[in-house]
């Protein structure tokens, strides 16, 4: 019985010694925690002011601020634990392994995340802009999120485009311009008067109020084909009138040319059909 009491007293004495020896570290850790909390708050306020001055998108403000706060809190807690005397080496190794595993599993999502950050920071387009990209994405931007951007196509279909490929492709922004050019190609037979055709086309273009006079509309011979001359028609219009002007002018030009007995040419295509036997045939399409 006495030996058990002596053993208990010895253990209690060791525990008391450990607590007494740890008091300076615990006090230092508490002070460090208070100071660190103040520093994190100061950095967060500084970031918000910086974002406001740079007019950064609100969605990325909150996201970057949260990431910075999480990283700083993790660093602070590890520092406090080390100050108290807790071994953090194994914890850091486990955290690193976990981060590596998550990074490999979410590689595609991380690429989209990075693309979303770049889009929100550098603003190649904004909500409401009409865009198209080299990866096939086209439409009016409805929403920009961290991982995906949502667009409404010309046919009304909602398109969800990953931000990674979108940020790494060539983007055409049609909303950031004042005026746009539309272009047609028209084939006319050699037996028709090309000068008269050009005059008719220019007259139709200049009579439309949506077609700009500066830059002037132009009509020129692009190519001399086997059975027809290929004319290129170019005209400029304001951005908001682009679709209406492009769609209406083509029909008006065709009708005016036909009214003046200048029909559009269609080039016949020769198709040779070769069979396994000695018979051969030629068809026109």
From TrEMBL:
<dbReference type="InterPro" id="IPR011066">
    <property type="entry name" value="MscS_channel_C_sf"/>
</dbReference>
<dbReference type="InterPro" id="IPR011014">
    <property type="entry name" value="MscS_channel_TM-2"/>
</dbReference>
<dbReference type="InterPro" id="IPR049278">
    <property type="entry name" value="MS_channel_C"/>
</dbReference>
<dbReference type="Pfam" id="PF21082">
    <property type="entry name" value="MS_channel_3rd"/>
</dbReference>
<dbReference type="InterPro" id="IPR023408">
    <property type="entry name" value="MscS_beta-dom_sf"/>
</dbReference>
<comment type="similarity">
    <text>Belongs to the MscS (TC 1.A.23) family.</text>
</comment>
<feature type="transmembrane region" description="Helical">
    <location>
        <begin position="60"/>
        <end position="86"/>
    </location>
</feature>
<keyword id="KW-1133">Transmembrane helix</keyword>
<protein>
    <submittedName>
        <fullName>Mechanosensitive ion channel family protein</fullName>
    </submittedName>
</protein>
<feature type="domain" description="Mechanosensitive ion channel MscS">
    <location>
        <begin position="109"/>
        <end position="176"/>
    </location>
</feature>
<feature type="domain" description="Mechanosensitive ion channel transmembrane helices 2/3">
    <location>
        <begin position="67"/>
        <end position="107"/>
    </location>
</feature>
<dbReference type="Pfam" id="PF21088">
    <property type="entry name" value="MS_channel_1st"/>
</dbReference>
<keyword id="KW-0812">Transmembrane</keyword>
<feature type="transmembrane region" description="Helical">
    <location>
        <begin position="92"/>
        <end position="122"/>
    </location>
</feature>
<dbReference type="InterPro" id="IPR006685">
    <property type="entry name" value="MscS_channel_2nd"/>
</dbReference>
<feature type="domain" description="Mechanosensitive ion channel MscS C-terminal">
    <location>
        <begin position="183"/>
        <end position="263"/>
    </location>
</feature>
<keyword id="KW-1003">Cell membrane</keyword>
<dbReference type="GO" id="GO:0005886">
    <property type="term" value="C:plasma membrane"/>
</dbReference>
<keyword id="KW-0472">Membrane</keyword>
<dbReference type="GO" id="GO:0008381">
    <property type="term" value="F:mechanosensitive monoatomic ion channel activity"/>
</dbReference>
<dbReference type="InterPro" id="IPR045275">
    <property type="entry name" value="MscS_archaea/bacteria_type"/>
</dbReference>
<dbReference type="InterPro" id="IPR049142">
    <property type="entry name" value="MS_channel_1st"/>
</dbReference>
<feature type="transmembrane region" description="Helical">
    <location>
        <begin position="20"/>
        <end position="40"/>
    </location>
</feature>
<dbReference type="Pfam" id="PF00924">
    <property type="entry name" value="MS_channel_2nd"/>
</dbReference>
<dbReference type="InterPro" id="IPR010920">
    <property type="entry name" value="LSM_dom_sf"/>
</dbReference>
